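step 4 of 6: structure.
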Amino acid sequence: MLTAVKTKKQMKQEYTITVYTENQVGLVNRIAIIFSRRKINIESLNTSPTESENVHRFTIVVIETEDVVKKLCRQIEKQVEVLKAYYNTNDEIVWQEMGLFKVPTDVIAAKVKVERLLHEYGARAIAIRKDYIVFETTGHSEEIERLIKALEPYGLIEFVRSARIAIIKSSKGFHEKLIEYEKQTADALVENEYLDKQEEVFTM
Amino acid sequence: MQVEELVEEKTATKRTENISGSVAVLEALIAENVQTIFGYPGGAIMPIYDALYDYNDKLEHILVRHEQGAIHAAQGFARTSGKVGVVFATSGPGATNLVTGLADAMIDSTPLVCITGQVFAHLLGTDAFQETDVINITTPVTKWNYQVTDANEIPHVLAKAFHIAGTGRPGPVLIDITKNAQLQKFDYSGYIKCNHIRSYRPKPIVRKEYIEQAAAIINNAKKPFVIFGQGVILGKAEKEFKRFIEKGGLPAAWTIMGMSAIPTDHPLGVGMLGMHGNYGPNVLTNECDALIAVGMRFDDRVTGRLDKYAKQAQIIHLDIDPAEIDKNVKTTVPVWGDCKETLPLLTQLIEEKQHTEWLNKFKAYSQKEMDIVIQHELNPSSDVMTMGEVINTINELTNGDAIIVTDVGQHQMVACRYAKMNHSKSNITSGGLGTMGFALPAAIGAKYGDPQRTVIAVIGDGGVQMTIQELGTIMQFNVDVKILILNNEFLGMVRQWQQLFHEKRYSFVNITSPNFVQVAKGYGIAGNSINKRADLKNALQTMLQHNGSYLLEVMVGKENNVFPMVPQGRGVAEIVLSKEEI
Ligand SMILES: Cc1ncc(C[n+]2csc(CCOP(=O)(O)OP(=O)(O)O)c2C)c(N)n1
């Protein structure tokens, strides 16, 4: 059991880091350099508003070991305007990415196969012009990549894939936490994950 | 930027005044109880300097000779006063000259507020004259930075700046203010200090469970060993720390940054950790059964090879910064929190003990170090003086009451190894960044930070030439600092490594110096240079008794080495006492 924990910790895998922040100019840079300073590649980065006014959300994907990701999150949380950083493995989140594909209109018209293909992947046309049609699809990165591969032989003009957006399955949203943070006694809120994972910590 | 973040401390005056952004900056400084500013003017900060003209009676501005000098001086000030140091610089080159000091303050957790001028907001991004992207250049080396483009922001941004710089784990903050914001008149309704920012939690809550677990480990330990850093000084917890080690009878060693938090001759003080630290604390790190780290961050110069570091021990880490826990060394019990709060809680739960036998072990190692290293350093058989005997003579003459500011290199290691210090905040050095050129300007600031005490800057012949222009500041403001140059006619520390690890291939470490006494004289500073042991005591005495600043150059052995040493890449227990052992 213990060795299993260890190897899992040392294994590089995809982690999704969710960061709640104040809405402030320059914060993207402050967060990004935490990764670049350690020569860690950001696989994808998305920023968006959240359910709480004035709170922004970063969704960052990296391929790293848990040990490294945990330290990254601590460094991120250390930034003055960061409210909280979480990290999760793929099984702990629901996530999606989006792809846009520009395909020549005449190809679609001529080849039923292409239309069927797009249909199969749940792509829908969002812009139709004489010379090209833009399709949109959402899914996990592998699904989108598979569609790209499938479309390549048919004169795919261009494509773009979005960053990952993710929702943590167990999250209750950020409202409550924010209310606590706004109180003067917010000091009490620095979480100490050792308490929850004591056994693991003390047997290591 | 949210105004709601600010919580009123005192009711601000209701009436509003129409003042300029520049005046608001100075009012903020006064409200924050700032008396001394280190700075250098220029185009983009001229409105603030213009306002300063009328604040001469309330704010003292020290005109340095280079902005790096300003920020190191502010660091020295912060370190001896325990307050936030303040710096003014102009845009572009003025601001970029601060970068080394910011990095130094960041890694050594020194509270600073640096205010830089910036070009007019409408010129941002146009490559205007003296425009530099200061915010982005300084992001990695500031705890927080912010660009102000509207005067209305100034009061609460500065309040935030002082709050962030001085609380939690302190650090440098930079506020870049565009020229239009400095000139802009706005309705000012008073300055309200900041004491809460919702996304910033400077003090983790103390969890009793961990205090209890830590106490249990300490109470069960046969060979407990405390290692402490600057956290004790920054947390103003010197008394609490002393009570803690005294109750538990716990031997304690300091990092270079923690030095002077307890008197260096405290019976439980077993010396300095690190690459050139003392023998016992390094070796016994790998023999203790409980390692209690207080306000220190396990720097690689302290730990040596991590996979050979204290593997046998249970490790308790007291730190205010959660990111430090487990960063380098895996902790058994993390005690997050301000050590001013956690230490008394821990002291309450530990048993009164004396670990005489264990303490004797430290003494035995200390004796060996004395025989093999120290004795020869302090009583050399040759005519050539050693750095150690110079420091030792200072101890005799000052009785350990002086503030010692060191630069970087062999003299720094020797000074920290041999200096006697009776009071906290006596050791001012660039520990984390190792910035040559730090000492002369930092000594200026150190004197302003604690004017009652003697300030001695111990500097190498190399480092002094990096910021020697600050002699001008010393001259103009009559700053009473004693400048002691230990001249070995080499970039000594690099030469030592070339000798030990690069087959004595002395590549560009031979450095010639000007006639330092003449240079000082040019600045109206009295001075002397000696090369004979017979003159040492008198020369130092003259320096110390001189009314005002004084420069003394002492010629020391050219190729002396600092030992003991933990060679890079080795474990702490593999510390060597002489070059024969390498
Ligand atoms: C700004 C800077 N440049 C280079 C170094 C590398 N360095 C560390 S010690 C040292 C030699 C210092 O020589 P000196 O000032 O004469 O002091 P000594 O070691 O001889 O006492 C050098 C070059 C440094 N620490 N800082």
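step 5 of 6: annotate
 - Chain B touches chain A through 36 residues (CB under 8 Å).
 - Residues 385-559 of chain B form a domain with the Rossmann fold fold (CATH 3.40.50.970).
step 6 of 6: archive
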